[in-house]
Each structure stands twice: as structure tokens, then as C-alpha cells.
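Q: Sequence in, structure out?
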Amino acid sequence: QVQLVESGGGLVQAGGSLRLSCAASGRAFSTYTMGWFRQAPGKEREFVAASTWSGSSMHYADSVKGRFTISRDNAKNTMYLQMNSLKPEDTAIYYCATHPITPQSMSTKITWINYWGRGTQVTVSS
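A: Exactly. Output:
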């Protein structure tokens, strides 16, 4: 059984930074892609970023390119999302997810994903 636990959310002013973490456990993840999604009130869940565990392939949503960076610590089975230059429109619950697909496919195949964390709230004030 796969378990994903997010942490690091909080309240930050526009222009500030946060780093989210996703700790994974329960299986070997070497062939899996880890990704971040977000869901704002009244909106559908949307893709943010994804990376293979090797770091050989990454993919970002256009809305976060140049501001967000996905990384990982393989020894800790932990994926990170560094979020800089935050905007009020980044306010959402951020979810970690994993599935054996490419990062590019993860951005469009949300219904395929079996494993999700419970989410962490990010609030950006103006």
C-alpha cells in the first residue's frame, strides 16, 4: 500500500515562498513519477508539476514555470515543491500524487492516478 503525506503549507504574502514536502512510503518508487496538483475552492483539481524519481524528466504547468521547482531526496523517499514569487491565485489545497506514467502524461491523465496524499493548504494573501 502506498502512502503519501504532504507538509509545508501555510499562509504567506504575495511574493513570498514556501516549500512543500511529500513523504512517500509503502513500495519501491524508482519507476514511478511523483507529481503535485492543486485545487482551489470551486475549481477542478489541476496539474502543477511532476518528476520522475531519477530527475531525468520533469514537467510543469505553464502557470508555475519559472516560479516553482520540483526536486527530490531519494534517500528519504521525499519529493519537494519549492514555490517562489507566490501569487494570490496560487491559493489552493496542494496534493501529492504518484503513478507509473511519464510526467507529461501525468499532466493530462489525472483520472489514471491511484495514489494521492490528503493535501496541504497554501494561502497567499495580497
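The CA atoms of residues 4 and 117 lie 5 Å apart.
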